[in-house]
Amino acid sequence: MIIRDEQLADIPAIHRLVTAAFGQRDEADLVDRLRADGDSVISLVAVEAGVIVGHVLFSKMRAPFRALSLAPVSVASHRQNSGIGGRLIYEGLRRAAEEGWDAVFVLGNSDYYERFGFDPDLARGFASPYAGPHFMAIPLHGELSVTKGKVDCAPAFAALE
User: Fold this and answer.
1) 2-5 and 40-48 as β-strands: parallel, antiparallel, unpaired?
2) Which of 21, 93, 108, 132 sits between 20 and 30 A of 114, alpha carbons compared?
3) CATH topology of domain 2-160
4) Rounded CA gap, 35 and 23, in Å?
């Protein structure tokens, strides 16, 4: 399996994969909107035998520092629970740190995301439409320079609410 940046030719396969992974088109449409709006920053695919079996997207956030949102993570049903999602997340976090981003936020299951270093306590001081026990952050370079303020995802996320 290889992990690489998405390519233009991958877009239809990514749309199908995300739709299948979530059982609806909303998240696939979100990926398309984030890409079209220019808010997609890191979009990675996992490829096995020439077939895309996983995808992750990191998009711009409004925050008091350079921050990204992690969402969505999608893995083909026949390859779930095999570590593909984790590999995509780790690679995305590595690239985000390398590109100088300060933090990544995610809304999700803390049992899953805490293994990558996401912490709900780090997100508690930030006002957000997604604030709550499942809203988490991870600093990419030590500690966050600011621990309070307002953060929000790219405008395309509003369509999911």
Assistant:
1) antiparallel
2) 21
3) Aminopeptidase (3.40.630)
4) 21
Both tokens of residue 13?
A: 């396969």
Q: CB of 127 within 8 A of CB of 93? A: no
Dist. CA 156–CA 33, nearest whole Å: 6
Residue 27 φ then ψ, to 5°: -70, -35
pLDDT in tens, 48-71: 999 999 999 999 999 999 999 999
Rounded distance between C-alpha atoms, residue 67 and residue 15, angstroms = 25
Cα(159)–Cα(99) distance, integer angstroms: 28
Q: Is the peptide bond before 72 cis (omega within 30 degrees of 0)?
A: yes
User: What pTM was computed for the model?
Assistant: 0.96
